[in-house]
Amino acid sequence: MPSAHHAPAQATTRDVSSRRRLSTILSAYFCREFILPLFCALLAFAVLFLINDVFDDLPDFLNQDIPGSVVMRYFLAKQPANLINVIPISVLLAASFMVMMMGKNSELTAMRAAGLSLGSCAWPVWLVASIMCLTVFAIGESWGPAGAKAAHDIRRQWVDKDDDRLTHIAFANAQQRRDWFIEELQQNDTAQNVIVRQYRPDGSTDWVLNALNAEYHADTWTFVAGDIKRYDERGALVVGEPEFFHQHQESFAEAPSDIRGHSKAWDLLTIRELRAVLNGNILPASQIQRLLKVMFWHHLCFPLASLVGALFGIALTIAQERSGVMKGFATAVGMLVLFYLVGQFTMVMGKNGWLPAFAAGALPSLAFTAGGIFTMWRKQ
């Protein structure tokens, strides 16, 4: 008879545990305990990055007669790009702080005693970390490059008045079916290392012009020291020597002002723009092509850093003793620092051709994300 009452009691316990696992109150508690320190960390690191920018760049502006509004716009324009690095470390610190406080109050012990899984209960953390990943991606594709370009233009106009060059310019004239690559474009409308690719209406390459120098004057481009390679309808190079020239003139519709107004530095290109340049097939050398491919994969996968911070911040900070908690927190910070160092190291190797572009740009983010998921799984 007692055993008959014992079985329903066990079932009731399991039902209560199941309801707790899906409890809205518990989920809201996790969310609150994570978002508050996350907001504080974001604010603190944003201010620190701003102060660092002020200490680095303000002396350059003080030496010039520059309006205060321009200086303020310059520093504000730099902040969106800073957030790309601020957000991941803030997520890690918030996750670690949440676990430390819950461990200090024995809440983790109580949840484990009730049969609850920290990984499933912390789903609000994974949700917020995923939103932060999307936020980093959005910043990298819009506000970051736009702000960095605005800051660069302000500095070049007001501080570096003697530096009027634009480098590594890729420009496409879709209406005329013509692509340009210019290594360096001066404000006096002279250019160095110029490549012009002309396409047929069907999209095949008609000819490619390479020139050491070029100059624009009176609606005419004058190309100096170069050659012209012609292609047939199948895209194959026409048999024969390229047409070498000492000087060649073309009345193209593109003026230097048009190219200058629609061009960006390589490090300011978004994923969509990087893909368009790579597919345009106007790159001057394999080294530049490797650089852009590495940047493409890096921009695409780096936003996972926020999820990496959340995973290691929770998994490594869980410990029974206080010394173990601090050791785990230090290890979590070290893992994120290692993530940045490995990412920069592989990017350098990829740009120099020692690693494939995917491995150099994407593999560190994917590997550390997988490592964080595995570490969290082991802590369950």
UniProtKB/TrEMBL annotation:
GO terms for cellular component: ATP-binding cassette (ABC) transporter complex. It is a multi-pass membrane protein. It is found in: Cell membrane. It comes from the Bacteria. GO terms for biological process: lipopolysaccharide transport. Keywords: Cell membrane, Membrane, Transmembrane, Transmembrane helix. InterPro entries: LptG/LptF_permease. It holds the Pfam family LptF_LptG. The chain crosses the membrane at residues 29-51, 83-103, 115-139, 296-316, 328-348, 354-377. PANTHER family: SLR0882 PROTEIN-RELATED, YJGP_YJGQ FAMILY PERMEASE. This is Lipopolysaccharide export system permease protein.
